[in-house]
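Field: COMPLEX_INPUT
Field: COMPONENT_COUNT = two
Field: RESIDUE_TOTAL = 666
Field: MODE = joint
Values follow.
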Amino acid sequence: MKFRAKIIDVGCLNHFTRVVNTVSRLTKACVLRLTCDHLYFVLSGRVASGGVSMWCELSQGNFFDEFQLEGVSADANEILLEVAPENLSRALKTAQNAKSVKIKLTKKSSACLTLAAELPSLSSVSRVVTHDIPVDVIPRRLWHDFREPQMPDFDVSIYLPPLKTLKSVVDRMKNLSNSLVLEANLNGEMNLKIDTDLVSVTTHFKDLGNPPWGDDGSQSSSAHRDPELMTEVCVDIRKLQQFLTGQQVHPSRAMCNIVDRRILHLIFLHEDVSLQYFIPALA
Amino acid sequence: MDCVATGGNVKVLAKAIHSLSRIGEELYLESVEDGLALRSVNSSRSAFACFLLSPLFFQRYQAPADHSFRCKMPIKSVQAVFKSLASLDRSVEKCRIQLNSEKSRLTITLHCKHGLLKTHNLSFQDCESLQAVFDKESCANVLQAQPRLMVDTVLHFPPSLEEVNLSVSSDRVWLRNHVEDGADSLRAMMTELCLSSEEFDHFSVGSQTSVTFCLKELRGLLVFADSSGLPVSMYFDEPGSPVILSVADSVLEANFVLATLSEDSHPKNHVNSDTKHPDTEQPPDDFMSDDMDSFLIAMESSELPGPSHVPTSPPRPTNNRKHSYIEEEEDEQALADGPPNKKFCSLFFGSVLPTPSQLPNQTMPSQEVLASDSEDENQTETS
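Field: COMPLEX_OUTPUT
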């Protein structure tokens, strides 16, 4: 098992850092899945994480100048590592104006992801900062937990309102209630509702637009659906807020899919990064 | 005693006090031959700092009549006088420090713009002279660098990092975070910064050495040096001997003395990073050297779900200070229960500071006193 990659471009480095920072704000531990073409940060929904799951996909070619991988075996040419993204984030933070950053899978007293950055210095010899981030190699028999999540059979898919607005609404609602109901329809309308003994607040958004999913199976049930009909899901407001607050990469597309009363599936797309976040409905 | 500091020196005085506050809870003030000494020490006696202000630092300097005035006071009270550096800059024109021995009060008067006077009367306690024993000239290794270099280096380590290890070879300097042994040591992120000797203004290394000391206490000096622009000199010897950092200009000298971990052999934080031995250059980037296969086989053949067992490796040097290494392997468990704060050798002090619970002449059991009490006529003054 070998892994070695290098980033030379400052823009790529900053972009990669922002993605890692976003992931580090969403979870304390996740799985880094490495394949020849992609990197994935995966959080599989468990009781420990409150049932949320995350799938963040990066196309390696858009970040790394060099990328060499030899997976576990020829037919399973991947490496899965459990890592604390905050460590990766801290390491990248000190490498901000590096001439080059190399990431390697190494073996110290345990398996590590070693990040070595060549920094500008006052002399002819560059400064080198090396971070050894401890990782756990995930054995093959556990890989099934970290497969790409299937697109849920959603009832409504809708583009989100401007993130800044959405975030400020959710921030204020968080002070009043622990749970929030998000409902939307195929007519581009979305409502955020909280309802407590003392107060009920609803924020209405309209003209948001619905993504055209085309002919894939998920849409078939919605084809006959009344566009005015709202579908809703009630989620823990803190999880939604955590997701919105952590965003450091401004997405070119932000949308969500709702499975009636079951799952809120948020999708943020950027040119070379996609982030999916699943928040289960409150019981 | 009557001293007056004016202009920019008021801010320098304030910064010195803030630096000292990073070390200990009390400020020791003493009038010495060369001027006014402001000192502090931490509770475990493993860090000491002294700012010596020469009479030329002051617009007016009148030493106390008996020439051996010394006192101590809670540093927080003095910090309160110089609270806001920005407002000191803007409005304080001069600062006057006077001793009122009848009432045991130190009066600090800030003369501000528009004739405003802020007077602070601080009570103080008598004390013994606080002077750590150290000798910069006898240190085998001396480095000097611009403060920016030190500050940039330290940035790579998280602010919460306690201890850092400094290793030098003939042309390189390595700074690493030091991780205590324990359950967390295998899971901790290790950071290492490697600098070339060329980045230093002065680089004189007697022999390849590695010392470990507390970074937190040092940050006070770095902030002071960075704002003053003065180069920082570092003096150190073998592990166990204190490391001394100093900044100086014509009217001021600051010395920060930090105890280092004493170990019988060089601590190698990365016990298995054979490629990072201070002797050798960084290994060529060889993809082939990262062979995880054998590691993976060893891991998968165990019944545990993840690599929770670690391939056997030589034991890391424990953080025990005074016992010989021969006992350590077996006694690791016992030693782990040792008092967590007494890890560093206490610095050697010239005299003993009486604590309320002790008789004035009793030495503290954990302290080794190299020089006798300051009352001794024959003692020569160390810097």
